[in-house]
Amino acid sequence: MSEHLTVVDHPLVQHKLTLMRDKGTSTAVFRQLLREITLLLAYEVTREMSLTTRHIETPMEEMDAPILAGKKLALVSILRAGNGMLDGVLELIPSARVGFVGLYRDEQTLEPVQYYFKAPEGLKDRLVIAVDPMLATGNSSAAAIDLLKQAGAADIRFLCLLAAPEGVARMKEAHPDVKIVTAALDRELNSKGYIMPGLGDAGDRMFGTK
Ligand code: URA
To answer: Which pLDDT does position 30 carry in this prediction?
Structure first.
């Protein structure tokens, strides 16, 4: 664990993650667990949100009470697996604005290419939380963060379920200012770019494809 990476070791997070890793877990249960675990991770990733005060009256007396400062946060799903994390964050922060980044890998150059980008306006004044369950090579995550920065984002966090050391290193090199929050840091990537021990293909498991 470092300034750059937070592994959330809360027992509920670890318990739910084990159920998600288990290959016998059904699509429906996998999706439900991802929603629940994301809600718990969202609590951690929003820990440093800034507060101001509002003058209110309780039934007893007046007070200056803490309240979130600034514009609503922007939640950005990195397609397609990121979509499985939207509901969990939105349950905690229903007023968040939502954006989407779609990237595919060019077979010739092996570079990520953008096929979709839609972000809330005023990104530069918002806390931006990019979500993607699997931080594997880190190439598409780093490219997605590049696009968000080009669109003006200046205060970005990356929220994932599982991270590989290779992906964390790639992100740290490309975007040292972007803090990462995850439920676990796994051992390594295999030769096909899958996280080991991992949980398989997160998109396929949550959408029942393949
Ligand atoms: N994407 C996945 O869905 N799973 C992995 O293990 C790596 C990338």
So the answer is: 98
Q: Which residues 6+ apart lie within 8 Å of 139 measured at CB?
A: 105, 112, 170
Residue 207 clears pLDDT 80, i.e. is over it: yes
Measured CA to CA in angstroms, residue 52 lies from 75, 117, 153 at distances of 21, 32, 22
Closest-CA residue, ligand 1 atom 5, reads 194
pLDDT at residue 112 greater than cutoff 90: no
Q: Does residue 58 lie in a domain region?
A: no
Q: What is the best residue among 103, 134, 139 to mutate for testing ligand 1's pocket, by most ligand atoms within 8 Å of CB?
A: 134
Q: How far is the CA of 22 from the centre of ligand 1 (A)?
A: 15
Judged against a pLDDT cut of 80, whether residue 11 lies above it is answered with yes
Domain extent, residue 172, equals 5-49+69-207
Count of domains in the chain?
Answer: 1
CATH number, residue 76: 3.40.50.2020
